[in-house]
Amino acid sequence: MFADWPGVETASAGLAPDADEPLTPEHLDWADLIFVMEPVHRRRLQTRFRRHLKTARVICLNIPDDYTLMQPELVTLLKARVGVHLK
Fold it and tell me: What is the pTM for the complete model shown?
């Protein structure tokens, strides 16, 4: 969704075991900013990957993770909450 923003490189990965793209230490080593939807995701990330979170900033968007992929309401929330961090 943010891949077309100027000066932004994006990747998407998930913490769930059945994620299409499971999160790896390599993702975290590459990232400057990491966005999570809910506080529980931040806790899981910190628990599982603490030693790989040395330089990346983790930002919780406080968006309930109960939307479908690219649901219009979710897209609106993401643009509003992520966009301010990408300027």
Answer: 0.90
Q: Encode pLDDT of 16-49 as tens digits.
A: 989 999 999 999 999 999 999 999 999 999 999 9
Q: How many domains is the chain partitioned into structurally?
A: 1
Provide φ and ψ at 22, rounded to 5°: -65, 140
Q: Rounded CA gap, 40 and 44, in Å? A: 6
Pair 34, 55: CB distance under 8 Å: no
Structural domain contains residue 3: no
DSSP string across 12-47:
--BSSTT-SSB--HHHHHH-SEEEESSHHHHHHHHH
CB 37 within 8 A of CB 15: no
Q: Can you say whether the dihedral through the CA atoms of 24, 29, 35, 39 is positive or negative?
A: positive
